Amino acid sequence: MQVVNKSGIQISTEAPATATAAVMKLESSPYEMVRQLGCSNPVVMFSMSGCCMCTVAKRLLFGLGVGPSVIELDQHVTGDDIQAVLYELAGDTQQPLPAIFVGGKFLGGVETLMACHINGTLIPLLKEAGALWL
Fold it and tell me: Residue ranges of the Glutaredoxin domain (predicted)?
């Protein structure tokens, strides 16, 4: 629908398709949002902007030449709901943030990321996910 304001400029009152898709994503369950976001890029990291362990994980991934999608939960509209899902995924044995997904699968937190890097399994995992080409 087109509306003309007082100055004669036409204004569209219909939401663009991308805005509608964004609203639909906000209306989905937190579990579905984590699944969708976790599969959106070869490497996805859920983080908090002031978290030192999140910074360590980012530096490692960027240092390896990986460009992860980083979702800062303290700046995300539904960050609290997503964080609750990540607490469930992490379980009692590990810190929930950072939460790293590689190839659409939950890898774990900074401890798992570092362990994979030290034992030599991280690079093949990143290559398999399409995050590294060398």
Answer: 43-106
Backbone CA torsion sign across 41, 103, 95, 37: positive
**DSSP codes joined into one string, 25-57:** HHHS-HHHHHHHHHTSSSEEEEE-TT-HHHHHH
What are 100-130's pLDDT values in tens digits?
999 999 999 999 999 999 999 999 999 999 9
DSSP string over 76-112:
STTHHHHHHHHHHHH-SSS--SSEEEETTEEEESHHH
Fold of 30-129: Glutaredoxin (3.40.30)
pTM above 0.70, yes or no: yes
